[in-house]
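Support reply, case 0932

Customer input (verbatim):
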Amino acid sequence: MRRSLLTLLLVSIALLLPACSAIRLGYGNADSLARWWIDQYLDLSPEQDALARERLTRLMVWHRKSQLPDYASVLGQARTMAVGKPTAADGLVLTDAIIRRVRRVADQAIPDAADLLLTLTPTQIERMATRLADKNVSYAKEARLAEGEAGQRKARFKRLLERAEYWYGAFSDGQEAAIRQLVDAQPSGAQFWYEERLRRQNELLELARKVQTEKLSRERVVTLLRDYVDRF
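Our regenerated output:
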């Protein structure tokens, strides 16, 4: 059962980019989508919006030119695993490869993030705090944190099944039972990730307030952001 579900994961990753037109569309407009997402939290001024537009466009040019060929190699690795007999160790290798590439993007984006952070006002920082708090309420409700481990496992099963059915269509009763058995055999982890989520958010808000009140240099802000990312 574990091998079958790991195969499901690897096949999904292997087919993700070339098969999904929605992801192609999203990647093609990632700079605009990211700018919209940032604006939801900060309500950017015209000057900040222009800065975000320029830096996100530059980041995407860098990503398309230097990163996509490397992603193709990772997807090829996933495809090779999927057609063989994948193990938990294979899953860890693939996970590590993905994390390292996400960190590479973060490293590239940090100087630009520092430039935006230096422009934030107290009102924008508090708006971000309010938006994060609202999102946390939604997260806790969806993860059923108030219902303890049993409720959290039900939420995890529902989320996993919905994602799998999005790619593959309806599952049989036996397939659903196999997924439920795997979910029930492990801690949900929802409470841990919720607390980790709060920690990351609080550290980011503290950093933003420190930058605003102490009028830090750009170099210092870049260093603080790199330290923040290193603690993920």
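We compared this against your earlier run and they match. Two observations from our side: Residues 159 and 198 are 21 Å apart (CA to CA). The chain has a mean pLDDT of 87. Please reopen the case if you see a mismatch on your end.
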